[in-house]
Amino acid sequence: MIAIETNGLTKQYGESVALSDLSVTIPTGTVYGFLGPNGAGKTTTMRILATLLKPTHGTAHIMGASIENRSAVAKHIGYLPETPPLYDELTGREQLEYIAGLREIPIEKATERIDRLATALSLIDDLDDRISSYSKGMKQKAAFIQAQLHDPAVLFLDEPTSGLDPRAARTMRTMIDDLAASGKTVFLSTHILPVVEEHADVVGVLNEGRLVAEGEPMALVQSAESGDKQSLEDVFLSITREPPGGMERAAPEPQHE
Ligand SMILES: Nc1ncnc2c1ncn2[C@@H]1O[C@H](COP(=O)(O)OP(=O)(O)OP(=O)(O)O)[C@@H](O)[C@H]1O
């Protein structure tokens, strides 16, 4: 089944084009690594797909539901934005129970999920402290739990490991792999290329609002392989330096000259 499908998705702010003609098809169970330099349009794309922003042109469907139908899309998705959407005056547990209530998740089920995810992320001992006392990483963990309280089919994660210490970042990456293994789809924006290289099934590279490359990480590296280009970072630097043009698709078989 297709989890995310976009056709000609475009967002303009006046004369300026933040996202141009994005068409992607992402099957369920995929970890899709969404890369691009600052200002490329990654957050714009995620906000459109999370129904928080309307596109200027184009269509998109999440688990078959049009992004024009906000409530139909909302039940399928969880969104972890760059800035965790939390109430400072609540404790972590109050915050998560509040969101569980809004999502109409029975309290026993919510408590089981909150405790399980908070234990996995080593946040369990801090859940009864106020969010105002949380570090950046603790807020990130709470927001990650919040985004998946309702067990959504599709998760949009904007820089999910931002602010996390190495152990917590590793745990979160393992959780992302586990989510995909259980059939969930993870749309992951990050600047940390080794994370994408290791965890993404497919990579899409956005530059100045355009998708300039898409493919499996290894295939992208191999199709671009020439001279000393060997890592996804080299490929990223190479394709995002050039002016936007036609889309480069990774060849299924490596092309050697
Ligand atoms: N509300 C807005 N009004 C005008 N321009 C905007 C607005 N929001 C975003 N933009 C522009 O759209 C473009 C894409 O921004 P976006 O935040 O999607 O980039 P990004 O890839 O997420 O960047 P970063 O990696 O820095 O988070 C940028 O040129 C930005 O200045």
From TrEMBL:
Q: What is this protein called?
A: ABC transporter ATP-binding protein
Q: Can you give the residue ranges of the ABC transporter domain?
A: 4-233
Molecular function (GO) terms for this protein are: ATP binding; ATP hydrolysis activity
Keywords noted in UniProt: ATP-binding, Nucleotide-binding, Transport
Keyword ATP-binding among UniProt keywords:
yes
**CDD domains the UniProt entry points to:** ABC_DR_subfamily_A
Name the Pfam families for this protein. ABC_tran (PF00005)
- Name the domain of life this protein comes from: Archaea
